[in-house]
Each structure stands twice: as structure tokens, then as C-alpha cells.
Design goal:
The protein contains 4 helices and no strands. The chain has 69 residues and is mostly helical. Helix 3 crosses helix 4.
């Protein structure tokens, strides 16, 4: 029996790790250590500085900020 695929932002995590070659925890550490705090600022930063696509950056930021709440 296999586990059900993750839903929501976490559903992107396997593709993010495969495409960018870094574990999700590393991306989350980068987001948490950034002086930026707003969703759209973090999203734009990941896209501009790290080359992430919009959907992947959005999933990482949304999931990371939700964990902080």
C-alpha cells in the first residue's frame, strides 16, 4: 500500500527537489533566514535570486509561512 500523494503546497515538493536539486528543508531555511517577511516579497526573491518558477516559489513560501503561524 502506498501513501496518498501530498495535497496543497506540499504536493509540489517532489518536483521542486527534482528540478532544483535541493531538499525542501533547505529552501525553507532560506525563506526563514531572509529579512523579507511578506509572501509576495519572498515569492519575488525566490524567483529573481534563485530562479524558481512562480508555482514552486509560491508553494514553498505558502507552506513555510503557514508553519510559522
Amino acid at each position: 500500500m502506498t501513501a496518498a500523494p501530498a495535497k496543497g503546497p506540499a504536493g509540489y515538493f517532489p518536483a521542486i527537489e527534482k528540478k532544483y536539486g535541493r531538499p525542501v528543508t533547505e529552501w525553507q531555511d532560506l525563506i526563514r533566514s531572509s529579512p523579507l517577511t511578506r509572501h509576495m516579497e519572498l515569492l519575488a526573491w525566490l524567483k529573481a535570486e534563485h530562479g524558481l518558477g512562480h508555482g514552486h516559489a509560491n508553494a514553498l513560501v505558502a507552506h513555510t509561512l503557514a508553519q510559522a503561524s
